[in-house]
UniProtKB/TrEMBL annotation:
Residues 1-58 form the HTH lysR-type domain. PROSITE patterns: HTH_LYSR. GO terms for molecular function: DNA binding; DNA-binding transcription factor activity. This is LysR family transcriptional regulator. It holds the Pfam family LysR_substrate. It comes from the Bacteria. The keyword Calcium does not apply. GO terms for cellular component: protein-DNA complex. Keywords: DNA-binding, Transcription, Transcription regulation.
């Protein structure tokens, strides 16, 4: 087994076809196919199922690819640390819930390390996918929150995937509303006062569950519910419908707009926002820089 073979299978998994992977790797299709067959034979597994419509990753192949990405990442860390002018594109991926500070830290990372060539990814996605991305080594870090309601379920999933959660800060729940909202002048808002307004939350897809919600789960019934997939839609509806959502309270006017404000929410528990990473993983220099930037924005927020 070689690093080159591991690179081959990860590129095939990313592209979904031998043809496109061979083109990206600048090798012939027969050479690529042969290298994959040799790796599968040596490791005594089937990584890909070949069909007329392309390839599918097997279950054991998915597990193998997770470890393969980890090995490649560790090799890149060694090169970055000991090999001067190693060349090649810098690579980094983080998966996160919809937090403005996560975006700001990503911008800082690119400004510092994106001078020449780079291949960075920021995935604002659903909670279950964040966990899956880090478990399968698609992302080095995942940003999410725990609280008294969801931590038992989330921690069980993290443990089963050999992931660990590290707390960054504790946030007091806030309500995001329009500056023109009828409750905008209040210094603190209760759930009872919000009852007549639409509640906006991020949709969690096939893994929809209160435990995977990006927003604080409240014991109070919310009669008007709207689920969305992206940040822009949520904020447009906040303004257009006098809706609200529950968040960490860390707000950025450049990303969220000057018409959105955060007001403390009464009678709800704290949000412990942090990052997850694989227990067997090693934090890269890019990962360290990203976390340093996160800390800067959270300190600036006063949280």
């Amino acid at each position: 087994m070689t690093l080159q073979q591991l690179k081959y299978v990860t590129i095939v998994a990313e592209t979904g076809t031998i043809t496109e992977a061979a083109n990206r790797l600048y090798i012939s299709q027969p050479s690529l196919t042969s290298a994959i067959h040799e790796l599968e034979k040596e490791m005594n597994i089937v990584i890909f199922n070949r069909t007329n419509k392309g390839i599918n990753i097997t279950k054991e192949g998915g597990d193998f690819l997770g470890y393969a990405r980890q090995v490649l990442e560790q090799a890149a860390i060694l090169e970055d640390k000991y090999k001067k002018n190693a060349g090649g594109k810098k690579q980094f991926c983080v998966s996160t819930q919809h937090y403005s500070f996560a975006v700001n830290a990503f911008v800082d990372l690119i400004k510092k390390y994106g001078q020449d060539e780079y291949d960075f990814s920021l995935r604002e996605t659903q909670t279950y996918e964040i966990i899956e991305d880090v478990a399968k080594m698609r992302s080095e870090l995942g940003i999410l929150f725990l609280n008294d309601f969801n931590e038992t379920v989330i921690n069980k999933i993290l443990k089963s995937n050999e992931l660990k959660f590290t707390q960054l800060f504790i946030a007091k729940p806030h309500v995001f509303i329009s500056r023109k909202h009828p409750l905008a002048e209040k210094t603190i808002i209760t759930n009872d006062e919000l009852e007549m307004y639409p509640y906006l939350s991020f949709e969690q897809g096939e893994h929809n569950s209160f435990y995977f919600s990006e927003e604080i789960f409240s014991a109070s019934e919310r009669k008007k519910n709207i689920r969305v997939r992206d940040r822009a839609t949520l904020f447009n509806l906040l303004i257009g419908l006098n809706g609200y959502t529950v968040c960490s309270g860390v707000i950025d006017k450049k990303l969220n707009g000057k018409d959105i404000i955060a007001v403390p929410l009464a009678d709800e528990g704290d949000m412990r926002i942090g990052y997850i990473m694989h227990k067997k993983g090693m934090l890269s220099r890019l990962g360290e820089t990203y976390l340093e930037s996160l800390g800067k924005y959270l300190t600036m927020s006063g949280k």
